[in-house]
Amino acid sequence: MRADFIIVGQGLAGSLLAAALQRRGRSVVVVDDGWRSAASKVAAGLMTPLTGRRFTLTPDYPALFRAAADTLSAAGALRLSGVYRMFVDEEQRGRGLARAVDASCAPFIESVTNGGGELHPALDDPFGGVLMKGAWADLPGLMSRQREALRRTDSLLEDSFDPDSFGHGSSGVTWKGLAAHGVVFCDGYRAALRGPFKDLGWQPAKGDALTLTSDAPAPPFILNREGWALHLGDGTWRTGTNWEWAALDEVPADAQRDKLLGRFRGFFNRPVRTDVSLHLAGVRPCTADSRPYLGTHPALPHVHLFNGLGPRGTVWGPATSELMAEHLHAGAPIPPDLDLRRALPC
Ligand SMILES: Cc1cc2nc3c(=O)[nH]c(=O)nc-3n(C[C@H](O)[C@H](O)[C@H](O)COP(=O)(O)OP(=O)(O)OC[C@H]3O[C@@H](n4cnc5c(N)ncnc54)[C@H](O)[C@@H]3O)c2cc1C
């Protein structure tokens, strides 16, 4: 069997890259081991313009969001939605008010509230908040449609690819009777643990997320305050998350579950019932400088990486998958700030 490229991993990165290569007429075989708590299966896929405790808009966001909106809506996965970021204190409120009149942030801001349930009577938002123009991506839908499409064209292998034992030479790579021009690792945070790219500067970070049913009133926007809650309809919610750098075991922790439930209940000014149906923990493939790693191994010309989408895979993935596909297809250079060579050990 022959293909232009073997792609290791069918998370968000592998799914987007496979589609981008196929659009360019290239053949792929995607090898995926169906890991239950891959980051793309744990994530809510939120796209929030202003983020972090400092409530900042990164300079890349507008262009990345435009590319993401195009790709994800063509794939039927884009869900435009407001995101209501509730302030935790007066200091954050002051910062939020300043951002609202900042020319670069203003296009992403719908309104600023004084709190007290101004946007929705059931919300507990004593310091008010900012309603932003955001979105979320239906990642399970995107990945399952892509998986079916790959299966239909015999382009999916449900198997585990051992990154330390495949053949590579001057003309390409081989693995289990499959020959290809190149292999691209889209294997998420596990690239940090083994294989040809493990020595790049990785900073993987674990996070938990819950799916639950609740009688909480559902406002028509995503709730956000040191975590998020996304209403999926019919009383079903997803809520998360936390950051943990020491234990990368993908084991959901009871303490985190309790913390997430407490935070969820705290969004509302009345008691709400919560019944958890699913608790997963995944690991974000974060990098030392918070930018993805794209490109080709410096000593192995047929071995490539498309990874490091970090905590904002839905924002970064669509634009960077096009850059990576063009690199593989036509040898286009990778922009230096995304090229994995910036992170090679000295
Ligand atoms: C709790 C949490 C919340 C998040 N929330 C958001 C959010 O709201 N918005 C956002 O944009 N991003 C979010 N993220 C980040 C986002 O999930 C990631 O950026 C993105 O999903 C990474 O995709 P990936 O394809 O690189 O990795 P993964 O999704 O981990 O996919 C890797 C795939 O490779 C497969 N694989 C690995 N090794 C092998 C092998 N040897 N052989 C075969 N298959 C293999 C795995 O099974 C998996 O399918 C969140 C992440 C977490 C953990």
How would you portray this structure in words?
This protein is 25% helix and 28% strand. The protein is α/β, with parallel strands linked by helices. It has two domains: 158 residues, FAD/NAD(P)-binding domain (3-Layer(bba) Sandwich), CATH 3.50.50; 138 residues, 2-Layer Sandwich (D-Amino Acid Oxidase, Chain A, domain 2). The strands form two sheets. Strands 3, 4, 5, 6, 11, 12, 13, 14 and 15 form a nine-stranded mixed sheet that branches. Strand 1, helix 1 and strand 2 form a beta-alpha-beta unit. The model has no long low-confidence stretch (mean pLDDT 96). It binds flavin-adenine dinucleotide. Flavin-adenine dinucleotide binds next to helix 1, strand 2, helix 2, strand 11 and strand 15.
How do the helices and strands line up, and which of them pair or pack?
Blueprint: E1 2-8, H1 12-23, E2 28-32, H2 39-42, E3 46-47, H3 61-74, E4 78-86, H4 90-100, E5 109-113, E6 129-137, H5 139-152, E7 156-158, E8 167-168, E9 173-175, E10 178-185, E11 205-214, E12 221-224, E13 228-233, E14 236-240, H6 254-266, E15 274-284, E16 293-296, E17 303-307, H7 313-330
The site of flavin-adenine dinucleotide (FAD) has 42 residues, from helix 1, strand 2, helix 2, strand 11 and strand 15.
